[in-house]
Amino acid sequence: MPKSKNYKIGIDVGGTKMSAVLFDGNKIIYDYMLATPRDTLDAFMTMLKALVEPLLEKAKDKKRKVDLIGMGVPSVLDAKGRVALNAPNLRIIENVDIAGKLEEMMGIEVVMDNDVNCFLRAEMMLGAGKGHTNVYGITIGTGIGGAWWLGENIYEGANGGGGEPGSMLIDFSENIGLEDAYHKLTKNNPASVAEEAFRGDVLAEKTFEEVGEFLGMAMANIINLIDPEMIILGGGVSESDELFLSRAKKTMKDHIASRDARKKIKVLKSKLGLRAGAIGAALIT
Predict the structure, then answer these.
(1) How far is residue 87 CA from its own chain's centroid?
(2) The model scores a pTM over 0.85
């Protein structure tokens, strides 16, 4: 991808952290991270402005203009891509034109997309999925999200909500979907439970074994439905993949219907790491 004369800013809004990158089309020039306010919308917008301002200063130092801000949010968006319709891990942004508010604050055009769409876009254009055409991405962090790349772009379905695995029923006896099961198991604090597991806490280790079991079932369902070439995993909790990925892969293969898919499917970690979502936001066109 050729460098632009101007820079773009990409923002990845997560349930606990917001990260931003100053991006030239190929590489990160500068990055910054702040905590995500969850109490009020005003606090959220103030922090969002504080996240962007250091990147604008860095662009100014380099005598470059920022011509676009891209933002990934943990929500399905409205048809115009301006309003978060369902953000279970960040309710304060729901039904608000976040993009419009940020445009007013910064005086720069703002475009928005689902956060996992951004993650997968970056991995397809610059990371682990480059050169492939049928790839599913899953991020595991505060919540669990997904996106499907088909052909040359994200496939969003007839109504813009395609690719989301969080509501997929995993435990029929309890009528629990994947994301609800994840929250229940990790007590809404996966980072803390992971830390306990790494310290040898048996219950915490068992928790992540169960996370792996449920994730493996979900991945098998996805493979049986869309038959992707690979699944790419990202998000903060994927950095602790040794706690659950082996179990997830075994469960996945046990439930894949196609023998060829069972042999050929690849499950890869993000090549771009924790900045993938912000990079993908900067790549929104």
Answers:
(1) 13
(2) yes
